[in-house]
Amino acid sequence: xxxxxxxxxxxxxxxxxxxxxxxxxxxxxxxxxxxxxxxxxxxxxxxxxxxxxxxxxxxxxxxxxxxxxxxxxxxxxxxxxxxxxxxxxxxxx
Length: 93
What we know:
Layout: H1 2-24, H2 38-43, H3 49-58, H4 62-67, H5 69-75, H6 78-86
């Protein structure tokens, strides 16, 4: 009986720990955080390291951005896809 209680306690603790890590990785979708990518998207320039870092941070938001009328033209543009590919931030929506 004691072993079962110990195992149950371990399982609950592990679950809570995993849930806290998932919550810590939550991203606030803010397209303005991608302003460092503007030159690369608008002029086909090579994306900066800062741009790639922000793209990776905002990657969970790409599908939302792709559905937003004011943003989808940039996200789905040839240069937008090229920047995402260069930064290794491909998304499947």
